[in-house]
Design goal:
elongated
C-alpha cells in the first residue's frame, strides 16, 4: 500500500469516529494550550521585567565603595579557626577575621581620578559618576540658603521624571545646575510661575575649600548669627581663635582645658587670618531646571542601591562636582562612585570586574538574578503540569485506540487479506495518532493566540494602573520555535500512545479477524 493511501484511510477513520476523535483532541488541546502559553508567557514576563529594569536607573547602577586591594595578603594565623566547628560557620568567622585584620592593617584603596579612569575603561560601563560631599551657600537676589550638592549623570532617568520646571541637564551643560523645589522655596520661589521664572537665572554658590577642621562649627555658629546681621565667617573664625588661645586663663578644670585644646587644636593662625577668598570658592551657575522630591510609590524602589538625589538641593554634571572637590584642601579620594551599566544582562560581568579591581560593590544583581530564578521556577512548574496533562491524554488516546482495534478487527482482517502487511497496519495506527497530535497542536496554537490577546489586554491595563505609566510590552511573546516545540511534544506523545495498539493491530491473524465479521 502507498503512504498516500494510508494517510487518506487514517483521515477517514478519524472523521468517521467524530466523538472519539474529539475526546482525544480535547486532552491534547488542554496540555498544548498550557504549554504554549507557559512558554510565551514566561518569555513575555521576562522581557517586560527587563524593559522596566532598563527604564530604571537603580537596576542598572552599581555603588562603588573604597575597598581593599585584591592582592592584600592576610597572615594564615589570623584566619586559623577551630576545625571542630561547623564548616559553614567556620567560613563566616574566617571572613569576619579577615575583614577586621584588613581594617586595622591595610589602607583602603583610594577612589580618585586614576581609579575613576579604570572604572570607565571597563567593558559595558556607560558612565562613572563620583559622589562628592559638597556643602554650599546659595545667594540669589539678596536671598540666602544652605544645602548639599551632588553629581548626576545626564542620562539619569529617574531624576529626569522629576523635573517640574525647565529641563534635564545634557552632557554639555557643565555650567548649569538643577535645583530642588525646597531650595527654590527658601530662595523665595514657591509658585509654579515663580519656578518657571527661576529657570535661566544665575545662582551664586559658595563652597568652603579651606579650613575644614573648623568648618562644621563655623557653619553652625554663623548660621545662628547671620539672621542678626553678624560679621563674616572670617571674623568669627578669628574671634574663636583668640578665645581658644586664652583657654588657660578661663575658670575651667584642668581636664576641661585639655579637652578643649585637643578638640580645637586644628584652629591655626593661618586659618584665623586667612581672607575670605582663600577660604571659599565662589562660582555662578545658570539654573536649568527644578526637580521635585522623590516619592516612594515606585513599585521597583526595592532595586535601589543608593540614596541618590533624594536629600540633595543641587545637582551638577559630575565633571563640575569633580572639579569643585579637587579644590578642597587635602582632597585625595571620593568616598564612593556610581557606575551605570548598559544593560541588565551585563550587570554581573561589571560587578565581577569591579571587585577584581579591589572595590566594594553594592548592586541589585542578587534581586535581578532572584527574579530570573523565580521566573524559571514558574516555567518549570507549569511545563511539568502541561506534560502531566499530555501524559494523561496519552493514556486516554492509548485506551481509545486499543478499543478501536477491537472494533476494527474485521477491517484489519480485510486489509491483510487484500495484501496489506503488518507494517502497513502498524503504520496506519501510528499515522492516526500523529494526526491527532498535529491537529491538536494547530488548534491549541489558534486558541492560545485568542486567549493571549484577551489576557494580555487585561494584564497591561492592570500594570499600567499599578506602575503609574503606560505598559506597552507584550505579556505573551510567541515565536516559531514555540510552535515547533509544542508540535513535536504533541506528536511524540500521541505516537507513543499509539505504539501498543498499533503493534496489537499488526499482529492480528487475518483468518481469525475475518471470522469476527
Amino acid at each position: 500500500m502507498r503512504f498516500r493511501d494510508l494517510l487518506i484511510m487514517a483521515a477517514h477513520n478519524l472523521w468517521s469516529r467524530k466523538l472519539r476523535t474529539a475526546l482525544n483532541l480535547l486532552g491534547v488541546l488542554i496540555g498544548c494550550v498550557l504549554l504554549i502559553m507557559t512558554i510565551s508567557g514566561t518569555r513575555g514576563v521576562r522581557r517586560g521585567i527587563r524593559n522596566i529594569m532598563h527604564g530604571s536607573d537603580d537596576a542598572l547602577r552599581l555603588v562603588i565603595h573604597r575597598g581593599y586591594r585584591p592582592n592584600a595578603q592576610v597572615p594564615p594565623d589570623v584566619l586559623r579557626v577551630d576545625e571542630r566547628m561547623d564548616p559553614v560557620r567556620r567560613a563566616r568567622i574566617r571572613e569576619r577575621l579577615r575583614s577586621r585584620w584588613l581594617r586595622k592593617n591595610v589602607p583602603r584603596r583610594s577612589l580618585g581620578s586614576e581609579e575613576l579612569t579604570q572604572l570607565r575603561a571597563l567593558k559595558h560601563v556607560v558612565e562613572v559618576i563620583p559622589r562628592p560631599d559638597l556643602r554650599f551657600r546659595a545667594v540669589l537676589n539678596g536671598q540666602m540658603a544652605q544645602g548639599r550638592a551632588t553629581s548626576i549623570s545626564a542620562r539619569d532617568i529617574r531624576l529626569a521624571g522629576r523635573i517640574i520646571a525647565g529641563e534635564m541637564l545634557t552632557p554639555a551643560t557643565t555650567h548649569e545646575i538643577l535645583v530642588s523645589e525646597f531650595l527654590a522655596y527658601e530662595l523665595g520661589y514657591g509658585s509654579d510661575d515663580e519656578l518657571q521664572r527661576l529657570v535661566g537665572q544665575s545662582l551664586e554658590l559658595r563652597f568652603r575649600v579651606r579650613g575644614q577642621r573648623m568648618a562644621w562649627l563655623i557653619e553652625f555658629l554663623n548660621g545662628r548669627l547671620e539672621s542678626d546681621g553678624a560679621a563674616s565667617q572670617v571674623d568669627l573664625l578669628g574671634a574663636l581663635h583668640r578665645v581658644i588661645s586664652q583657654v588657660d586663663e578661663l575658670a575651667l578644670a584642668d581636664g576641661e582645658r585639655e579637652l578643649i585644646k585637643a578638640a580645637f587644636g586644628g584652629l591655626s593662625d593661618e586659618d584665623a587670618t586667612a581672607n575670605e577668598a582663600e577660604l571659599y570658592l565662589t562660582e555662578s551657575f545658570a539654573v536649568r531646571g527644578v526637580f521635585r522630591a522623590w516619592d516612594d510609590d515606585d513599585p521597583f524602589s526595592f532595586l535601589r542601591t543608593a540614596k541618590f538625589n533624594d536629600d540633595d538641593d543641587i545637582c551638577f554634571h559630575h565633571d563640575t562636582s569633580s572639579r569643585l572637590m579637587a579644590a578642597h584642601e587635602n582632597f585625595e579620594s571620593f568616598s564612593q562612585a556610581i557606575v551605570d551599566v548598559d544593560s541588565v544582562e551585563h550587570l554581573r560581568d561589571v560587578v565581577e570586574q569591579t571587585k577584581k579591581l579591589g572595590f566594594s560593590v553594592t548592586s541589585a544583581i542578587r534581586i535581578v538574578e532572584r527574579i530570573d530564578q523565580e521566573i524559571n521556577k514558574a516555567l518549570a512548574a507549569i511545563s511539568v503540569l502541561s506534560l502531566i496533562v499530555l501524559s494523561i491524554s496519552a493514556v486516554g488516546i492509548s485506551n481509545t485506540m486499543a478499543a478501536s482495534v477491537l472494533e476494527r478487527t474485521s477491517e484489519f482482517g480485510i486489509m491483510k487479506s487484500l495484501g496489506a502487511r503488518d507494517q502497513h497496519v502498524r503504520l496506519l495506527m501510528l499515522i492516526e495518532g500523529t494526526m491527532t497530535g498535529v491537529v491538536g497542536a494547530f488548534l491549541a496554537w489558534a486558541i492560545a493566540w485568542g486567549l493571549s490577546w484577551g489576557i494580555g489586554t487585561l494584564v497591561r491595563q492592570y500594570l499600567t494602573q499599578r506602575l503609574g505609566e503606560s505598559y506597552e510590552s507584550n505579556v505573551f511573546l510567541f515565536s516559531p520555535e514555540d510552535f515547533l516545540i509544542v508540535l513535536g511534544v504533541a506528536g511524540v506523545v500521541c505516537v507513543i500512545a499509539s505504539i501498543l495498539p498499533a503493534h496489537r493491530a499488526a499482529r492480528l491473524d487475518p483468518v481469525v479477524a475475518m471470522r469476527r465479521m
